[in-house]
Amino acid sequence: MEMPVFETLTIEVDAGVAVVTLNRPEKLNAFNTRMMQELISAFDVTDANDQVRAVIVTGAGRAFCAGADLSAGAATFDYEARGGQDRDARMIDGVWRDGGGQLTLRIFDSLKPVIAAVNGPAVGVGVTMQLAMDMRLASTDARFGFVFTRRGLNPEAASSWFLPRLVGMQTALEWCLTGRFVAAQEALERGLVRSIHAPAELLPAAFALAREIADNASPVSVALTRQMLWRMAGAAHPMEAHKADSRAIFARGAMADAKEGVAAFLEKRIPSWSDKVSSDMPDIWPHWEKPEFL
User: Kind and range of the H or E element at 145?
Assistant: First the structure.
C-alpha cells in the first residue's frame, strides 16, 4: 500500500514499522485542525495495512509538539467564533468534541501498537496525545507540560481518564493543577515514560522496541491484547475481563496462528504468522453488547 502525502506530517514504513513524524518544525510542530485530521487518517492507514506491525510517533526538529497552534491569538480556543473548518471539525452530531480527544480516541482504537519517541518539548496536546499511546521513550531534551490551568483552560484529549491510570492520581493532580514543566527524569521516575535516551539514540531505541514486537508476535494477537488491556482499564469488575478473555481465547485457539505458534515452539523455529489484522480479527468488541453476555 502506498503511503499518502500529508501537509502536517510524514509517514514512512521501514521493515514493518511505520514512523509518523509531526512535520511543522518551524512552528515546533504545533497542533492545528489539519494535523488532527491527518493524524487520525494516518492511524486509519496503518490499521488497514497488514505490512505495518507497529507505529512510532515522533517530531521533526527540536520539539515533539509545542501544543495548540496559537496563531489565532485570544480566539484560539473559541471555535464557535472562528467558524469554518475549525468549527466544523469539532462539532459532531451537534455536540462539541475537542480535537485532541478525537485523536486520542482514535489511537485508543488502534489495531497496531503505538510508541511515542519524544524528541523534545511536549506541551498541552503535545503531551496529552501521547497518553493513549502504549509506550513513551523520551530524549534527554524532552520535557512535558500539562499547562492548561496556566492558560485558563482545562486538560483535554480525554487526559483525565488516561493520565491517572499511567502515573496515579496524586501525580496527575500535581502536574495538572500546577501546570509546571516536568523534566524527562521526573517523567521516568513517575511512570510517564519507559526510558530516557541521548537524542541520537532515541529513534534507534524506539525501533528496537517496535521490532521486538514485529519480529516475534502474531499481529492479530497483538491487536487483540492491546485492545483488551486498554479497554479493561475501565471495567467495573474482573468478570468483564473474563468474558472478553474467554471469547477471544476460544476464537484464537481455532485459528491458524495458534496452531503455528505451538508448532514453532515445539519445533524450535521462528513462527510464520498467517492471520491478518485486516481480515481475521475475532469479533469480541464491544463484548458487553453481545447477546450471550447480557
Answer: strand 143-145
pLDDT (tens digit, 9 = 90+) per residue, 90-131? 777 878 889 999 999 999 999 999 999 999 999 999 999 999
* Residue labelled with grid coordinates 503455528: 260
Nine cell digits for residue 16: 514493518
* pTM beyond cutoff 0.85: yes
Which residues, 6+ apart, have CB-to-CB distance to 118 below 8 Å? 58, 59, 64, 130, 136, 137, 138, 139, 142, 144, 184, 193, 202
Residue 101 CA, distance from chain mean position: 12
Q: What is the CATH number of domain 9-213?
A: 3.90.226.10
Euclidean distance between CA atoms 33 and 82, whole angstroms = 12
SS3 state of residue 14: strand
Tell me the C-alpha to C-alpha distance, in Å, between residue 286 and each of 24, 229, 233, 282. 37, 14, 14, 11
Question: 218-228: buried (b, 16+ CB within 10 Å) or exposed (e) per residue?
Answer: bbbbbbbebbb
pLDDT tens per residue, range 121-149 = 999 999 999 999 999 999 999 999 999 99
